[in-house]
C-alpha cells in the first residue's frame, strides 16, 4: 500500500545521472516466455551532482532477471540489487556497456502495457512507462537513445516482424524460425519503442514528400480486413500533405507503418514510424462504420502522424510536460479536420466535447492543471484537461498571435528544439521570442486548474455612439489550489444591428479581474454575440433574454454562436421545467406547460434553423440536437437524472409533434440512392435526416417507429442503420428485437462492429436494461480482457445511461463497482479510467451521493488495489 501512495512532484525533477546513447535489443518471441537481451551504451551525465552519483538505476517491473554484465563481466548477485521498482548497480566508469537478459510473458500480460499478445499477434505499448516491463532501462523521456532491434520468431505464426526505423537485415533461422533487424536512426525515448510480430495482412500505398522523397505507407491488419483500410490510408496521405502545407513539416523516413490491434488501452500510439492503433480507429467500410467512425479515423490517424514532429522529433522532458505534445497535437488535428471538413461544425464538435468531458473534470475532485504538479500514476493523467484544455491553450496562442505569428513561433520551436526533450515553458518561450511578446500571464493556463467564469455587462451610449462592455472573470478553488489569479484570454465579440448584420466585431484581450472595452461608431443599440468561436474556453455566466437568443440563432454571422444561442435557450428551458418537475408531481409535460410561451418561441427558432437552406446540413443537424443529459446534469445541483431524462424527452416530443410535417419532408428530401461516400457533405445530409427521424419517433406516432424499422432493413450503410437502431433502441417496437438480432448475426465474428451492439443495449432507457447488461456479460463475444468490450458494455452503461446508472435503488452503482473491482486485477489502467463517473457524487442528492461514496470506499478496501485505481478512487472519495 505504501508505494501506492507515493506521490511524484514536478518540482522534484532532476536531470538523469546517466544517459543511454544506443540500445541493442534481441527478442526471442514466445507467447509464454519471451527472452529479451539488451545491450546499453551508457555514459554519465557530465552535469550530474556528486555523492551517490556512481549508482546506476534502471527501471524494471514484473520481469525475471536472468543476468547482468558490465563491460562483458557478469555481475555476481552481491554486485547489484533488484526490487519492485528496478535494478541498481555501481557504474565502473564514465562510459560503459551494460548487458541485461530478462524474461517476460506476453500471453499473461493482461494489463496491455509492455509486450503482450492481441489475437494471434505480439505487440507493445510503452507509453508512458511500459518499456520497464520489457527490460531494465532508464524509462524516462529525457533519456533518448538510438535503437537497434533484432526480432526472432516462429516464421509460420509470425511472418511479419516490425519495429521502429529501417529494416536493415532479415533471414531464416533453424527450427522454422526467422529474424528481422530494425534500426531507428532518430534518438528517441523508450516510450516510443514498438515491436509487432504476427500473421498480418498488409495494405500498401506511397506518398511523395514535398522534397520529392517516396515514402512507403503500410497498414497491417488481421487477414480479411484488407478491404477496410482505404479511409485510414487516405487520411494518412492527407495528413502528410497538410503538415507540409500548413506547418512546413515533412516526413523523415522512407517508410511509415500502422498496425491495427484488437486489444488496446487507448485510441492509438505514435511510436516512431510504427504507429499502433486500436482497430476501431482504422477499420472502416460503408457497411461496417458510421460517419462518426470515419471522422474519428481521420482525426486519430492525423493525430498520431502529427506526433512525428510534435512529440517524437521534439519530445517531453518529463511526464508533467505531457501537454507539450498532446495539447499541441490535438490542436493540430482539430485544425486539420476543420480544413478537411466544415470549420464551424468542427468547432462545435470540439467545444461540445470540451464541455462534456473537460469542464466536469475541471470542476470535480480530479481537477488538475494542464501541466500537473504531482501524480501517483501517470497513466491517470492522459485526461481531457491535458489533451483538450491543452489544445485550447495553444488555440489561444494562435488567436493572440494570428496565423503568421503563430507559424513564426512554431518554426522557431522546431528549429530550436529538434532532437530534444523539452518543457511547456520552452514551447511558450519560442512563441514569445519569435513574436517579441510576453506570455507570462497566459502561461497561468498551464498551472491554474478550474474553468474560469466570465460575466459581461453592456452599456449603450446613443449620443457618443459607443458601446461599453465590462468583463469580469473569476475562477473557483480546485483541490489544492485555493487562490486563483485572473487569466489572460482573447474574447471575440460581435455587435449585431436590428437587421441582423454585424455593426462591429473585435477580439479583446482580457487580463484583469474586471475590465472595460469600448466599441466606437455604434449607431444603434446592438445585440451582443459574446465569445465568438469560443475564443476563450470559459463558462459564460451572463444570461441574455430569450428574444436575443432567438435573434442570435437566426442571424449571428458566427456559426458557432448561432449554435451556442440554441444550446443556451434549450438548457434554460429544460432547467426551468426541471425545477417545476416536483411541483408537477413528476409530470414532465405539465412542467413544460409552465414555460409554454418560451417553449413555443424556442420551437419557432428551431423550425427556422431546420428550414434555412443557407445553412450547412451538418450544422443544422447539430443545432437541432438538445444538450445531452450529462451536460444538463452539470448545470445545477443536485442533479436529478430521472427528471432530466423525462423533461428532455418531453421537450423532444413537443418539438417532434410541432414540426412533424417539416421533419417528415426533411426526412424524405434527404434520402439518397447514391453509393455511400464518407465525405462531409454526404455525412451532413445523413445526419440531418437522422435528426429528423429521431424527432419523428420522439413524437410518439407509431408509424414513425415503423419507419425506423424499415430504414434499418432497407439501408445499405452502417450510418443509416445505426441511426435507425439507436432510436428503436429505447422502444418496445418489434423492429427493435429484429434489428438487434439481425445485427448480432451479421457481425458475430466482427469484434469492432459488434461493440456497437453491446453499447446500444447498455445505453437503452428501457426498464430491463441492467438485467440485459448482466446477461450480455455472458455473451460468447464478451470478455473483460478486451478494453473495447469493457468500454462498450460497462463503460457505456455508466457514461451513456445516466438514468440507469444512477437508479435510485443503487443497483447501477453496485453492478458497476463489482465490475471495477474485477477489472482492476486484469487491467488497472482501464479500471482507473472507468472509475471517474463514481467521483461525481457531489452533483447528486444525498441518497445517491452516499451510495456513490460507499462504492468508492468499497473499491478502496479492495486487497492489492492497483496504484492506478487507488489514485482515482481516493481522490474522488476525498473531495
Ligand atoms: Zn497524442
From TrEMBL:
Peptidase M1 membrane alanine aminopeptidase domain boundaries: 231-441
EC numbers on record: 3.4.11.2
Aminopeptidase N-like N-terminal domain boundaries: 51-192
Domain Peptidase M1 alanyl aminopeptidase Ig-like fold: 450-542
Domain of life: Bacteria
MF (Gene Ontology): alanyl aminopeptidase activity; metallopeptidase activity; zinc ion binding
Catalytic activity: Release of an N-terminal amino acid, Xaa-|-Yaa- from a peptide, amide or arylamide. Xaa is preferably Ala, but may be most amino acids including Pro (slow action). When a terminal hydrophobic residue is followed by a prolyl residue, the two may be released as an intact Xaa-Pro dipeptide
Annotated signal sequence range: none
Residues in Peptidase M1 alanyl aminopeptidase C-terminal domain copies: 546-877
Keywords assigned: Aminopeptidase, Hydrolase, Metal-binding, Metalloprotease, Protease, Zinc
GO biological process, one term: proteolysis
SUPFAM superfamilies: Leukotriene A4 hydrolase N-terminal domain (SSF63737), Metalloproteases ('zincins'), catalytic domain (SSF55486)
Pfam (any one): Peptidase_M1
The protein's required cofactors: Zn(2+)
NCBIfam families: pepN_proteo
Sequence similarity: Belongs to the peptidase M1 family.
PANTHER family in the record: PUROMYCIN-SENSITIVE AMINOPEPTIDASE
Name listed for the protein in its UniProt record: Aminopeptidase N
Amino acid at each position: 500500500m505504501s508505494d501506492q501512495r507515493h506521490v511524484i512532484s514536478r518540482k522534484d525533477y532532476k536531470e538523469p545521472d546517466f544517459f543511454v546513447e544506443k540500445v541493442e535489443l534481441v527478442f526471442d518471441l514466445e507467447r509464454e516466455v519471451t527472452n529479451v537481451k539488451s545491450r546499453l551504451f551508457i555514459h554519465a551525465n557530465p552535469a550530474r551532482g556528486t555523492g551517490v552519483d556512481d549508482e546506476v538505476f534502471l527501471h524494471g517491473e514484473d520481469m525475471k532477471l536472468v543476468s547482468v554484465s558490465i563491460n562483458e563481466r557478469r555481475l555476481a548477485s552481491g554486485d547489484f540489487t533488484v526490487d519492485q521498482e528496478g535494478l541498481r548497480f555501481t557504474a565502473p566508469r564514465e562510459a560503459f556497456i551494460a548487458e541485461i537478459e530478462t524474461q517476460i510473458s506476453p500471453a499473461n500480460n493482461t494489463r496491455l502495457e509492455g509486450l503482450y499478445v492481441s489475437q494471434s499477434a505480439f505487440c507493445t505499448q510503452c507509453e508512458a512507462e511500459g518499456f520497464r516491463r520489457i527490460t531494465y532501462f532508464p524509462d524516462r523521456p529525457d533519456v533518448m537513445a538510438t535503437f537497434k532491434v533484432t526480432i526472432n520468431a516462429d516464421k509460420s505464426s509470425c511472418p511479419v516482424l516490425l519495429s521502429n526505423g529501417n529494416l536493415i537485415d532479415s533471414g531464416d533461422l533453424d527450427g522454422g524460425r526467422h529474424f528481422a533487424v530494425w534500426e531507428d536512426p532518430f534518438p528517441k525515448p523508450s516510450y516510443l519503442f514498438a515491436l509487432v510480430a504476427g500473421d498480418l495482412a498488409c495494405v500498401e500505398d506511397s506518398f511523395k514528400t514535398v522534397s520529392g522523397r517516396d515514402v512507403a505507407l503500410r497498414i497491417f491488419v488481421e487477414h480479411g480486413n484488407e478491404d477496410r483500410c482505404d479511409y485510414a490510408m487516405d487520411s494518412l496521405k492527407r495528413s502528410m500533405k497538410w503538415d507540409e502545407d500548413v506547418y512546413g513539416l515533412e516526413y523523415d523516413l522512407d517508410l511509415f507503418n500502422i498496425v491495427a490491434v484488437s486489444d488496446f488501452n487507448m485510441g492509438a500510439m505514435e511510436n516512431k514510424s510504427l504507429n499502433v492503433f486500436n482497430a476501431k480507429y482504422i477499420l472502416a467500410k460503408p457497411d461496417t462504420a458510421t460517419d462518426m467512425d470515419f471522422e474519428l479515423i481521420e482525426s486519430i490517424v492525423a493525430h498520431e502522424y502529427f506526433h512525428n514532429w510534435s512529440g517524437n522529433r521534439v519530445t517531453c522532458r518529463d511526464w508533467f510536460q505531457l501537454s507539450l505534445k498532446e495539447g499541441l497535437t490535438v490542436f493540430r488535428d482539430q485544425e486539420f479536420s476543420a480544413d478537411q471538413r466544415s470549420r464551424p461544425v468542427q468547432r462545435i464538435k470540439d467545444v461540445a466535447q470540451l464541455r462534456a468531458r473537460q469542464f466536469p473534470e475541471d470542476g470535480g475532485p480530479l481537477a488538475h492543471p494542464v501541466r500537473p504538479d504531482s501524480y501517483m500514476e501517470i497513466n491517470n493523467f492522459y485526461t481531457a484537461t491535458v489533451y483538450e484544455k491543452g489544445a485550447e491553450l495553444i488555440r489561444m496562442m494562435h488567436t493572440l498571435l494570428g496565423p503568421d505569428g503563430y507559424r513564426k513561433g512554431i518554426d522557431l520551436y522546431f528549429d530550436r528544439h529538434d532532437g530534444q526533450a523539452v518543457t511547456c515553458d520552452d514551447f511558450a518561450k519560442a512563441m514569445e521570442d519569435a513574436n517579441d511578446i510576453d506570455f507570462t500571464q497566459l502561461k497561468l493556463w498551464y498551472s491554474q486548474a478550474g474553468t474560469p467564469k466570465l460575466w459581461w455587462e453592456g452599456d449603450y451610449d446613443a449620443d457618443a455612439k459607443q458601446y461599453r462592455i465590462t468583463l469580469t472573470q473569476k475562477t473557483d478553488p480546485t483541490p489544492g489550489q485555493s487562490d486563483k489569479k485572473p487569466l489572460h484570454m482573447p474574447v471575440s465579440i460581435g455587435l449585431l444591428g436590428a437587421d441582423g448584420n454585424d455593426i462591429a466585431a473585435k477580439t479583446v484581450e482580457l487580463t484583469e479581474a474586471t475590465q472595460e472595452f469600448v466599441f466606437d461608431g455604434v449607431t444603434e443599440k446592438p445585440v451582443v454575440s459574446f465569445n465568438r468561436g469560443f475564443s476563450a474556453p470559459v463558462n459564460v455566466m451572463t444570461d441574455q433574454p430569450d428574444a436575443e437568443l432567438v435573434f442570435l440563432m437566426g442571424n449571428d454571422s458566427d456559426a458557432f454562436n448561432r449554435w451556442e444561442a440554441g444550446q443556451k435557450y434549450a438548457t434554460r428551458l429544460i432547467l426551468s421545467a426541471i425545477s417545476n418537475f416536483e411541483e408537477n408531481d413528476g409530470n414532465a409535460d405539465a412542467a413544460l406547460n409552465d414555460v409554454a410561451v418560451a417553449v413555443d418561441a424556442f420551437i419557432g427558432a428551431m423550425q427556422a434553423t431546420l428550414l434555412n437552406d443557407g445553412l450547412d446540413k451538418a450544422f443544422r443537424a447539430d443545432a437541432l440536437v438538445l444538450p445531452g443529459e450529462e451536460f444538463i446534469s452539470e448545470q445545477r445541483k443536485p442533479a436529478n437524472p430521472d427528471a432530466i431524462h423525462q423533461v428532455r424527452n418531453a421537450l423532444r416530443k413537443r418539438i417532434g409533434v410541432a414540426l412533424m410535417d417539416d421533419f417528415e419532408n426533411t426526412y424524405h428530401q434527404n434520402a439518397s440512392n447514391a453509393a455511400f461516400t464518407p465525405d462531409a457533405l454526404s455525412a451532413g445530409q445523413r445526419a440531418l435526416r437522422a435528426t429528423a427521424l429521431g424527432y419523428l419517433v420522439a413524437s410518439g406516432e407509431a408509424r414513425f417507429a415503423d419507419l425506423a424499422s424499415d430504414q434499418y432493413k432497407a439501408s445499405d450503410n452502417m450510418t443509416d442503420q445505426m441511426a435507425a437502431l439507436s432510436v428503436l433502441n429505447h422502444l418496445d417496437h418489434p423492429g427493435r428485437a429484429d434489428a438487434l438480432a439481425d445485427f448480432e448475426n451479421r457481425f458475430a465474428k466482427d469484434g469492432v462492429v459488434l461493440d456497437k451492439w453491446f453499447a446500444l443495449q447498455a445505453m437503452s432507457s428501457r426498464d430491463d436494461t441492467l438485467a440485459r447488461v448482466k446477461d450480455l456479460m455472458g455473451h460468447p463475444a464478451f470478455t473483460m480482457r478486451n478494453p473495447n468490450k469493457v468500454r462498450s458494455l460497462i463503460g457505456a452503461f455508466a457514461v451513456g445511461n445516466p438514468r440507469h446508472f444512477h437508479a435510485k435503488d443503487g443497483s447501477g452503482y453496485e453492478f458497476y463497482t463489482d465490475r471495477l473491482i474485477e477489472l482492476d486485477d486484469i487491467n488497472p489502467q482501464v479500471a482507473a479510467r472507468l472509475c471517474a463517473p463514481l467521483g461525481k457524487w457531489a452533483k447528486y442528492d444525498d441518497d445517491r451521493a452516499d451510495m456513490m461514496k460507499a462504492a468508492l470506499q468499497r473499491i478502496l478496501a479492495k486487497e492489492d488495489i492497483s496504484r492506478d485505481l487507488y489514485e482515482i478512487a481516493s481522490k474522488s472519495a476525498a473531495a
